[in-house]
Amino acid sequence: MISDKIRDILNEQINKEFYSAYLYLSMSAYFSEIGLYGFSNWAKVQSKEEIDHGMILFEYVLGRNSQVHLAQISMPTFDMSSPIEVFEQIYQHERSITSSIDSVANTSDNECDLATRNFIDWYLKEQIEEEASVSRIIAKLKAFGQEKSALFLIDRELSNREYSYPEY
Ligand code: FEO
Fold first, then answer.
1. Is the minimum distance from the CB of 94 to ligand 1 under 6 angstroms?
2. Domain of residue 72, residue span
3. Is the CB of 107 within 6 Å of ligand 1?
4. Along the 168 residues of the chain, how does pLDDT read in single tens digits?
5. Which end of the chain is more exposed for a tag (fewer CB within 10 A), N or C?
6. How high is the pLDDT of residue 127?
7. Taking Cα atoms as reference points, which of 101, 137, 135, 134 lies closest to residue 120?
């Protein structure tokens, strides 16, 4: 069993992960509409991973004999002016998710819930990877993204991303 505080913060995190999935899916649609199918693929794979993040939390809450409360998922909005703008927003979004995961870790510490503290460690590591991979794409876009031929090559590289279930 977990405390009400932990239950609530984990339910909030489930909502944020599903919102992330929605956000990436809408970005995938945007990239597809402007002909950047590799970027679209990257965002679609990310969307699937976010669903997995939500589902791992979902199973954890149920597995601790607690309650899942699924709240409304907000409509995703973002500035569609250019690929780099979108990726800058992705970076800010992931930073906010990192801070949200930090809050889960801190609350687990305060509640002396070592199992949840241990469980959330994987998410802390995952956030480091997500921020790093988005930063690398931003760096490439900043360096070469103005050139159409370079954008084409970055798009081709991002088309190689494949979905796999997270190694939780
Ligand atoms: Fe599930 Fe992108 O954090």
1. yes
2. 4-158
3. no
4. 899 999 999 999 999 999 999 999 999 999 999 999 999 999 999 999 999 999 999 999 999 999 999 999 999 999 989 999 999 999 999 999 999 999 999 999 999 999 999 999 999 999 999 999 999 999 999 999 889 999 999 999 999 999 999 988
5. N
6. 98
7. 101
CA of 149 to the centre of ligand 1 (A): 30
Cα-based angle 104, 105, 111 (whole degrees, multiple of 5): 85
Task: Tell me, in angstroms, the distance from the centre of ligand 1 to residue 66's CA.
Answer: 23
Instruction: Give distance in angstroms: CA of 116 to centre of ligand 1.
Output: 18
Please check whether residue 61 is in contact with residue 72, taking contact to mean a CB–CB distance below 8 angstroms. no
116 in any annotated domain: yes
The structure tokens 């988005």 sit at: 134
The encoded tokens of residue 136 equal: 């690398």
- CA 164 to ligand 1 centroid distance, Å: 15
101 lines ligand 1 (CB under 6 A): no
Asked, for residue 166, whether it belongs to a domain, the answer is no
Q: What's the distance, CA 61 to chain centroid?
A: 19
Counting the structural domains of the chain, the total is 1
98 found inside a domain = yes
Domain annotation covers residue 165: no
